[in-house]
C-alpha cells in the first residue's frame, strides 16, 4: 500500500508514543508528507506546546481556530489548531443551549467544577470536537498529536468509562458517538511511535494491546523513530596499514568505538525484530536526523523517509 493510501485509510489518526520518542516530530512529518502527496492534512495539538510550530518554522501560537502552517506546489497543505478542554466544554455548552450561562460560570469558577465533576468528561469533549471536525472540516486527514502513552490511553478509553457512569442524557449521547468514531477503522486509527530500544519497544507493545482492548481503536503502522544504524564498513577490523601511522592509544580508542557502535547497531536490529514479532504490524523506520532541533528542512527529510518507507 502506498503512503498516501495508508494515510487516507482512516480520517482521524492519533499519533501515540512514550515521552521522548519524538512523537510530535513524527506527527508533523506525517502531516508534511501528506501535504507533499497533495492532501490537506489538519494537525491537532492538545497540550499547548510549541514543538509543532518549530517543526514548520512557525512562531505564532496555535489557538482554537485553524491556521495554515505549510503549503506545497502539489496543492496539498498543512493546517493546524490547538484544542483545549475548557474551549471544548464552552463550545459544547453553547451548542446545547447553555450559552447564556457560560460567562457567569467562567467568572464564578464553576466552569472548572463542571469540567471535573464527571470523570472523563474533559477527554470526551475533546474527542467530540475531533469527531465534529472530521465530519465538518473540508480536509483529507486529521492527525492528532496525542499526549504521552498513559494519558493517551485514558483519553481514548474515556468514552467507555463515561458510558458506564452516565446512563442517559446529552453527555451519554456524546460518549456513544465518540465511541463509534474510535471503533470504526475507516474513521479512526492509532499510529504508535517508538525507538529501537528496549524500554520504548516494551511500552509500545504493551500500549498496543491496551489501546485495542480498552479503547477498541485499530492500530496502523508502527513508526520507529531516530534509527541510527551503522556503516557496513564498521564490520571490518582495522588493518595494519590503517593503524601504522597512528598512536597505539588512538588505535585502541578507535577499536573500542567501533565495537561499541556495532553493539548498538546489533541492539537496534534486535529490538526491531522483537517489535515485529510481538506486534506484527507494518513498520516504517525513520533515520536519525543530525541537529539539536527539528526545523522544516529536517522535517522534510523525515517526510521523504515516510513516503519511501510505506509499502
Notes on the protein architecture:
The protein is of the alpha/beta class. The protein has a single domain, classed as 3-Layer(aba) Sandwich (Rossmann fold). The protein is 54% helix and 16% strand. Strands 3-4-2-5-1-6-7-8 form an eight-stranded mixed sheet, sandwiched between helices. The N and C termini lie close together (5 Å). The relative contact order is 0.16. The mean pLDDT is 85.
Shape: elongated
Order of helices and strands: HEHEHEEHHHHEHHEHEHHEH
Largest sheet, if any?
8 strands, mixed
Number of domains: 1
Helix/strand/pairing class, anyone?
alpha/beta
CATH topology (fold) name:
Rossmann fold
Helix content: 40-55%
Q: Ends: how far apart?
A: 5 Å
Strand content: 15-25%
What is the CA-atom radius of gyration, in angstroms? Answer: 23 Å
The CATH superfamily turns out to be: P-loop containing nucleotide triphosphate hydrolases
The overall pLDDT average reads 85
Strand order of the biggest β-sheet: 3-4-2-5-1-6-7-8
Number of strands: 8
Total of helices: 13
